[in-house]
Amino acid sequence: MDHKNPLPVIPSIEIKSKSYHMGSHWGFIFHARSYEFEYNAQIVETQSIVSDSNESGSNSKNSASFSTKDLGSRIRGRYQHAFPAIYIGAKGEDRAKLGFGVGPSEAVISGTANFYNSVNPVIFQAQSLDRSTFLNRVALSQMILGADPSLDPLRTYFLANINEGKNLEHLGVYMAAKGEIGTPNFNVVTIAQIQYLNNTGNFTPIEILTLLSLNNGAYSNRLRSNATWVVFYEYPGEYFTFQLQVTSPLYYSGFNRFRFSFIDFSIQVPIEF
Fold first, then answer.
1. How large a percentage of the chain has pLDDT more than 90?
2. CA 45 to chain CA centroid, nearest Å
């Protein structure tokens, strides 16, 4: 996933200890930082085979053509990271520092992430199963994704009781209020999914839209890592501190692996206490 806006401006909070200078040009410092982030584009690369032949058709040659497309999903969350760091720099709080640190991090995320590249095989079972069995399998596929049910109890309740009453419609309304539902991208796969659901005759339009959005990976989770590295460069000015920080936390949850890449340039207002 990626930002459509390459330079988003977001507020952040950073807590730093005083610098403990250990040698002539190096020392130790402790950082803790928290900020929100949003990935509003999920880009995947697709491949198509193009066949070239001569006029007689006796010889042909295949070549691969690559293109990218946006799946229309997005993830937002909060990232928190605490780490001790060793830095290179002269003694003094008002001196530039180049540092490297490792420490625990956490990312709490929610939104949509299309793990199936628009193809979740569960939804194509709608015609061969009764409504109750099909909806139970949809709910089970959502749980298998590894989402943390404690982060969104109401969504978990609707999923656990998805085949009772109007809970499927209520789930759609709830997801719409959170910005996790919308008009699907109308490609061949989406049209096929709508056809499969429509042929059963058991789903209303809002229920079909909800099922398509669930297929697009409505997701929430709390991700933790005990060892996330960070590299930073800090330059104190007269009134502000300028900092460049690069980190790439890696998380595992169930069958899924998440790697975020953060390159942050911040202008900080120091507050001593």
1. 18
2. 17
| Residue recorded with tokens 């420490």 | 103
| C-alpha span between 162 and 165 (Å, rounded) | 8
Residues 149-163 have a mean pLDDT of 82
Torsion over CA: 155, 120, 253, 176 (sign): negative
Q: Which of 120, 118, 130 is nearest to 200 (CA)?
A: 130
Instruction: Please tell me whether residue 62 adopts helix, strand or coil conformation.
Output: strand
How sure is the predictor about 23, in pLDDT bands with cuts at 50, 70 and 90?
A: confident
Dist CA 215 CA 121 (whole Å): 9
Rounded to 5°, the CA angle 163-179-115 comes to: 70
DSSP alpha helix (H) spans, 201-245: 205-215
pTM: 0.62
Structure-block tokens of residue 136: 């139970």
Question: Are 232 and 265 in contact, with CB atoms under 8 Å apart?
Answer: no
In a 3-state reduction of DSSP, which class is residue 222?
Answer: strand
Give all strands (DSSP E) within the chain, no chain letters. 12-16, 20-21, 26-39, 43-53, 60-70, 75-88, 97-112, 218-236, 241-247, 250-253, 256-259, 262-268
